[in-house]
Amino acid sequence: MAKLKDVKKVVLAYSGGLDTSIILKWLQTELGAEVVTFTADLGQGDSDLEPARKKAEMMGAKQIYIEDVREEFVRDFVFPMFRANAEYEGLYLLGTSIARPLISKRLVEIARETGADAVAHGATGKGNDQVRFELSAYALNPDIKVIAPWRDWSFKSRTDLLDFAEKHQIPIAKDKRGDAPFSVDANLLHSSSEGKVLEDPWVEPPEFVHQRTISPMDAPDAVTEIEIEFLKGDPIALNGKALSPAAMLAALNDLGRDNGIGRLDLVENRFVGMKSRGVYETPGGTVLLQAHRGIESITLDRGAAHLKDELMPRYAELIYNGFWFSPERLMLQALIDKSQEDVEGTVRLKLYKGNAIVSGRKSKKSLYRNDLVTFEDDRGAYDQKDAEGFIRLNALRLRTLAARNRGN
Amino acid sequence: MAKLKDVKKVVLAYSGGLDTSIILKWLQTELGAEVVTFTADLGQGDSDLEPARKKAEMMGAKQIYIEDVREEFVRDFVFPMFRANAEYEGLYLLGTSIARPLISKRLVEIARETGADAVAHGATGKGNDQVRFELSAYALNPDIKVIAPWRDWSFKSRTDLLDFAEKHQIPIAKDKRGDAPFSVDANLLHSSSEGKVLEDPWVEPPEFVHQRTISPMDAPDAVTEIEIEFLKGDPIALNGKALSPAAMLAALNDLGRDNGIGRLDLVENRFVGMKSRGVYETPGGTVLLQAHRGIESITLDRGAAHLKDELMPRYAELIYNGFWFSPERLMLQALIDKSQEDVEGTVRLKLYKGNAIVSGRKSKKSLYRNDLVTFEDDRGAYDQKDAEGFIRLNALRLRTLAARNRGN
Amino acid sequence: MAKLKDVKKVVLAYSGGLDTSIILKWLQTELGAEVVTFTADLGQGDSDLEPARKKAEMMGAKQIYIEDVREEFVRDFVFPMFRANAEYEGLYLLGTSIARPLISKRLVEIARETGADAVAHGATGKGNDQVRFELSAYALNPDIKVIAPWRDWSFKSRTDLLDFAEKHQIPIAKDKRGDAPFSVDANLLHSSSEGKVLEDPWVEPPEFVHQRTISPMDAPDAVTEIEIEFLKGDPIALNGKALSPAAMLAALNDLGRDNGIGRLDLVENRFVGMKSRGVYETPGGTVLLQAHRGIESITLDRGAAHLKDELMPRYAELIYNGFWFSPERLMLQALIDKSQEDVEGTVRLKLYKGNAIVSGRKSKKSLYRNDLVTFEDDRGAYDQKDAEGFIRLNALRLRTLAARNRGN
Amino acid sequence: MAKLKDVKKVVLAYSGGLDTSIILKWLQTELGAEVVTFTADLGQGDSDLEPARKKAEMMGAKQIYIEDVREEFVRDFVFPMFRANAEYEGLYLLGTSIARPLISKRLVEIARETGADAVAHGATGKGNDQVRFELSAYALNPDIKVIAPWRDWSFKSRTDLLDFAEKHQIPIAKDKRGDAPFSVDANLLHSSSEGKVLEDPWVEPPEFVHQRTISPMDAPDAVTEIEIEFLKGDPIALNGKALSPAAMLAALNDLGRDNGIGRLDLVENRFVGMKSRGVYETPGGTVLLQAHRGIESITLDRGAAHLKDELMPRYAELIYNGFWFSPERLMLQALIDKSQEDVEGTVRLKLYKGNAIVSGRKSKKSLYRNDLVTFEDDRGAYDQKDAEGFIRLNALRLRTLAARNRGN
């Protein structure tokens, strides 16, 4: 706390909810700091951010920033990540991880604009988000102070928090009185749920945990067929209609939600060292990943594709761990983007009760050549005799080894 | 062909079908070689291999080996591969690739037993299977001769082949007269289909191509719930009943098939250099992969899991390319097997119309600790203050870099 | 400090020097804990450890462990690491890093034997060694308490420390009165020097910093030629004479030292986030690395060798960062050890003024075949025609890509 | 050979030596093709290429291209590769490998200019160079025909070749009559020697094999100190004097040669499957590698450096195997180049009898901060308390694992 004494002005990532409102007040009262609030529309679902503005005003925020960053979020963060087919631990599409760097970037920029010497966030000391917020902030401004009230304040329990809220006349929604059954994060890419009813990994997540998708069991009996067009690895049109990045992801979300696509119940390894269990819903992202793999399958060279595949786990880990603004992420991004120059064309998918099935792909840049692969007469496109030499030289070291090993 | 002149006895991988029967005869007539046939029950579906024996006898095979290798196949090839969560190009479960080394191993062993100087297979000069057969054979016996008639003979067309068959009184099933609509491979792990009606990757595979699975659309409306128990990374019991490796995979195949699980329509990159399009059905394997990931998620340490994930694409590529018996595959297997020592416990899955959803996992060896992760009082299991130092030292190099970059 | 209050008995890694003597006394006086000392002969150069025993006795150590662990150190730590050709950041042979896990292992074992609830070390809060000590200790006993007095005590300066020493009648060697010009670590593998006169990376290290080697400029004008014999990747005989692991490393150290071999002046990246500059002397290890690469060059298959090379940086990083007892290091070790089964034979080296030059290698397990490589008649060992097919199929994807890229 | 029948005009990589002169004649007489010669000054040592021109004219070459490509070679091939610190199999600086793509590039370009339908090279069917030439050619023009006479012609022995030469009045230098004692390649980066007297890897290379360096034993007793300045990872000035890429490498070659630096006696693994033994001399490159590592050590972030180190073996393998113009090499280059943006500053080296020792490095872009690393008072630059949390969270998974493993 000593280090926080000198803080004069803080930019707070402010949702308008109870927890960040308590933080706002705590920063004012305990640190004696002026507070600037930053509330972003990342597509979390509250399209109306005016209540957050009013609440911040009411609580005496010095300046209030409210911004719709959905296009930036999808264009500069989500799509670059999907170019890599990033999946953390084989399955998780990194929906929370990818939003944090953007928020930190704006916090640091606003701090510069407003002359604030610190930024603050509402993430706890057990999770990954604190790391993501803070690594990003430090990478963008090495002198910024970062305040994480959940690690610093003296409240011992939820009751302490609510008492503080009451004492400072912070409105408390009725359903916040009892313990929430689980914790939620959401943005245009996904929603996540953790804790409480999800804490035993043997117990199936209850249906009410899900927010972005209907159950596959409740999805329509009919198949929905769609076509996605790509350019330089990014989706640019849906069923023939050009869409902006955020509009594209929103449309895919609707399609995914309606067909029960994109649920994930995962036990994962946090950067801070423990395993946790989360339920993720990434409807549009799940469709997009399949589609992107589909268009890559005909337009990406094998050497490029395999190199990407081998580096993907590292890339995903970097994002998960909060290293979006690290040199190594930027280096990998340069490598990935280089590979996407000709990843263009159209993919057709069938959406059906939890399944997003690629059923066709075509491209002017296709590397698929039927004359090479056909069982029919290939008119000399491929000389089968070549295979013998290819195999014999690939085998040469193995034969040398086998001869050595039997004592030849 | 010159090199083949001296061949005296050949062990042929013999299915009993038309193509390998033509090869049998060609080896006898064109090379003047004695032929030993090897027919394996790999679970391809013809549980009765007696017709193959009769046909081989009729055609004058010198010795006839017919063997049920299903347990060996699953125990020593399929399960070790699934310990790695191997997926080629992110999606393909390597069903064909993993069977070839076993066949080559038996061909080479039988050659030793029978004094044969060559082995022969029926794979074409365009595919991966020739590579897999031959690399395996050479790795096991550096002096073996390998005959690949499809590359060596002078037949120019299917008509030539059929003429040769008729001339030598090889029975031709009626449906083989016309061109087959596609080419098929099958074993206990999967079936694959290629060619003809599948040659245009924009055209959806017709339903009749599928052999091992019903369509998700045709699967039951009810969820099937199962539990799989693991030991050392391998499944050992299904719904509480211990099963041998082959019996386990067969049972999972039935469950997968009935629920429309395990179809894949993929454009992939062959080792010989072209892209090809295949339809794969791996019902049991698809369920097994999800279950294995599920049990690993609670029993495998993060460092172990991430190292495995990073090496998996390489491992899968080695198997796909035919390097099962290479030192590098054995080295990776040693690494993977080391990781699986405590991968044990039970996974519950819901099977539903194409989906294999992990809905619970438990283990005596679980590394999931609710006391660490809980939002409630953790009684000192985790000190949130630790996170500050953790983040600050992880950030140190990024801050140094940021200061440098702005000219400090 | 609060957490340290309950500590009753501590096992201290004790060198007998001033700093760890101050720590011994501080643990007794400030924590009120009983202290057990552990002093290891790792080959640091003080072959007589009796003074450390007397000093510990004099200062009231409860129990005193003094052990010669040189054979264990080289056999179970150094040699396994050299099987991997491990070099951190391309150059550093990890001499300090590899000793820490062994010390921690003994500390934890002695804690168990003596009923101690904590271990303590004398590493500072800025370096890597604290991390290595503590990660190893926690990995071996999750409940052990680790005390790092340099991070915990209230001394602000070297003067404070010396005052404390005088107050408690701890003998202070005269040359410790002033600031030491640099900090030193040593064991049978290497010595390292850091700090003070080395702090400016533009300034060349003064000659007096070096402790284990003479300067190349001072080394003999004549070449020293040696032969090292390997078995399973480890050196077992020198110039025809079988030597134990520690005797082997000691003998190579003598040879290296006398020929000015093994100096390294490096700016490296610490795990805790900053760059530091060190001068390392690894005379025997430098010779050993070259020799090991030499014997691998004729006995290791390409696939095995390249896989090892690709994983080496990760392996070295794990050791540098203190993760010797992590699952991922053990997995990599399993992979590496698998590769070394046939790494045997003899390497001849010329040692000369800083150079350790491999001038010959031979092995019964050699994979080098002159019949394959000769420009002369190879009697059919290699068919140059095979190369055409090999190249054409390796080129196929590149040609397909080139055709696509020009718009074909 | 059939495939070569239609070749009308060939661009030949022509050295002016006996072998490529025989090839020139063979292409004219056996294929009936017009021949265009391309002779490049890559710094191989024959600065006067006029004799090659006269010889080509005399032999009836249709067109003659003679070009000094040294600057392009160093700027666009050598320096980009050194940004990666590329070493094949840990030691080889790829001097031959890196020259082949440039030659192929010019062959293909000249083929386009002259309307030739084929290119030809003088590499044998056993080596790597054929692969490098041909992969590069195919990657740049998928329809080009590549003629490798050593694989195609019917000569059985050196005598046959010499008879052909005599018959066609090709001048034969006297020393070519007997077998050359070894085979040589050279360019501005290195020279290599293979075969004959080098074929037994136990026998030390005779001194006369070396062409670019004096022996360390013959080098001056005095140290030569130099300073190299870097910008964006490339050397731009030597001892304060700006030099073009080729001039820089030539100057470093002189310095290396005079100090006995850059010899390597290596058994390596060829792409075509066998081991071979080569003697390489890379005097300037060896100095450059050390210098580049030196400047990176203070200017490159740890995350960037370690990622580079892990990918380097793959990158080096790609170049060795001939995949310079592959998408994956280009992707890796994008990653590497991204890392080099701030790799600038000055390195001081001591050159002495085979040693190239970095003795100082400085940079305006340095990331080395003495305030962080000092043992003295750091005025708050680093809080040692942070290390505790850092270690505890890094240890958390290891402790969880240890508790699990002992049955907690």
UniProtKB/TrEMBL annotation, chains A, B, C, D:
It holds the Pfam family Arginosuc_synth. It comes from the Bacteria. The lineage of its organism: Bacteria, Pseudomonadati, Pseudomonadota, Alphaproteobacteria, Hyphomicrobiales. Keywords: Amino-acid biosynthesis, Arginine biosynthesis, ATP-binding, Cytoplasm, Ligase, Nucleotide-binding. It comes from Ollibium composti. The keyword Nucleotide-binding applies. Residues 182-399 form the Arginosuccinate synthase C-terminal domain. CDD domains: ASS. This is Argininosuccinate synthase.
